[in-house]
Amino acid sequence: MSIYLITGITSYVGKGIATYLIGLKFKVYGVSRNNPEINHDCFTWIKNDLYDDSIPDISQIDCLIHCAGDGWYGKSSSHYLHANCVITDYINQYIVRNNIQSCVFLSTIDVYGDNNNNVLNENSLIINPKYYGLSKYYSEEIMSNNTKCLVLRLPSILGKGTHGWMSDTVRKLINHEPIFYTNTLTNLFTHPTFIAKLIIEYFGKNSDSAILNVAASPPIESQLIIEYVKKHTSSNSMLKPIKKVLSKDYIIDTKNLESIIKPMTIYQILDLYLHDVFDV
Predict the structure, then answer these.
(1) Residue 280 above 60 pLDDT?
(2) Per-residue confidence (pLDDT) for residue 21, from 0 to 100
(3) Of 145 and 135, which is predicted with more confidence?
(4) Alpha carbon distance 52, 50 (integer Å)
(5) Which of 20, 89, 175, 254 is the most exposed place for a label (fewest CB within 10 A)?
(6) Is residue 223 classed exposed, middle or buried when 0-12, 13-18 and 19+ CB atoms within 10 A define those classes?
(7) What is the pLDDT of residues 211-230, one digit of tens each?
């Protein structure tokens, strides 16, 4: 595969995937409403906000990577329906119209909703997902109508622009603020670079559609994550566990992922993240 079209190219995820592919001299078209400011002979920006079916047709696209859409920000059901499902339907029509043979949809582990199993795999039940997870699940169904679609159910994607526990923790460590935490076993992280590598590896080995859960391996305790970042940011923050025992939370089974590519460790992901955001 040599020619990619990526939606949501100004997001840190889309831009990170594109940067990796361009570094390998793949041709990349990026679609977004704002200029991603990627200056490279292998990159072409297409200005489009995706709110109608108006992306210009491009011949010879080998793979479309659909990164655009809204993340979990507690917005309304109607917002997620339009921002995720309706736009995904437009993208699906584009794929069919341009006879694009392979596509990738960036979904989320939030599709599993209220499933309380300690370990989640691709066969785990979808139980009452919230609006965001539900919109991504419906979008999976739309994209899976295509001949060859790889659906990636993703955890927290660390990079410049990420939101959530990890970014809040790093900010506090940088500012030498106290950290109060619950120690859990986790592997719920990945990085745009790994997503790009996975896409290349998958389509190099497979010709079928698939759903893959993505996560780091092996799982480690969140206390070790905080201590690692504290050391690498030269922080003086006090670390204070809320509970002294290891709390139970879920992790992602990476067995199917490992049949395609070796997952990144959490420490490898943290190194990339800290370099992306803080250059430490």
Answers:
(1) no
(2) 97
(3) 135
(4) 5
(5) 175
(6) middle
(7) 999 999 999 999 999 999 99
Q: Which residue type does 157 have?
A: I
Q: What is the pTM (predicted TM-score) of this model?
A: 0.94
Q: Contact 122/104 with Cβ under 8 angstroms?
A: no
Lookup result for tokens 């991504």: 136
> Quick count: other Cβ atoms within 10 Å of Cβ 163?
11
Residues ≥6 apart with Cβ < 8 Å to 203 = 1, 63, 102, 148, 150
At CA 113, angle to CA 110 and CA 119, rounded to 5?
Answer: 80
Q: How far apart are CA 43 and CA 122, in angstroms?
A: 34
Of how many residues is the chain composed?
280
